[in-house]
Amino acid sequence: xxxxxxxxxLATLLMRHFHAAGQLATGQPSSLKLVDFVNSDPRWNExxxxxxxxxxxNQLVHQGLLVDLGGVGLERLYLGRExxxxxxxxxxxxxxxxxxIEIFRRHSGAVAPVIVKDRDNxxxxxxxxxxxxxxxxxxARHVVENMQSVKVLGANENPRRIRxxxxxxxxxxxxxxxxxxxxxxxxxxPFRKSAHVLGESILSIGFPPVPGFDRLTVLEHGxxxxxxKVMNGEIVGGGIPYQETTEYFLVNARVKGGxxxxxxxxxxxxxxxxxxxxxxxxxSSDKLNGLGYGxxxxxxxxxxxxxxxxxVDSGFEEFGNKGEIRTVx
Length: 329
Description:
- The relative contact order is 0.14.
- Strands 7-6-3-4-5-9-8 form a seven-stranded antiparallel sheet. A six-stranded antiparallel barrel has the order 10-11-13-16-15-14.
- By secondary structure, it is an alpha+beta fold.
- The protein is built from nine helices and 16 strands.
């Protein structure tokens, strides 16, 4: 008996098939049957795991990506709402079906610990991630600023050599971007970024210090609950401020300690924000921590760094040859 197949890209194959069929099948709804998808590959009549097929189809319907037009079993009709080869290449449809576990499986290699040593020779840990390519590395500003040394750990725990570092032009925006030396054969899928939406589900992957564990990778799942503006160290409750403000959003996920600099991902697996410092003010940060909120810098602030070629000499012990931050394609 042949082993039942569960193609890892089944969600993408379904989306591509039903979108194309819908474009071509005006007046021919039979071409939208699930059985026609099964027959599109000669092997699948005997080997495709039909139970898994129905699971993936139902998830795509639940996500609003496929429209269920009715029918029974493999004769059921479906229509693809939209299809994008760019999304397919990134794995968006698989991420939508598989949820946080699938996102972690596909992208966990793009998240790395940042080991720092401060001016008192004490060590600490933060988190960072690769954005757009295997050399552009993002973390929180407070993780690396004013540190004596910084190490970005790559594959096999080997430090990646740092060529340059850029901060956001506004000192209160908690973002830093490294350009690391070229890596010829990256073994991970770098993240892409997107805008955040209030109320959407998010996932954070970071390295908070947990007693008894060495660089434990932790997943936190939650929702975006609110947007806040910070001015002169206080949360603005309403109205239009007279001075420029820094925008953040809040999530009900436990993103503290070594999670600083971690990516905050939407259900497509795209970065919508970066875990920031919770030290907004001596009073407000304690209140937010007590409520269990994480403070997130929107990914849109990264454009201010990635679109400009500015390099800051940090004085790190491990700081290497100067270079320039490349824009993310």
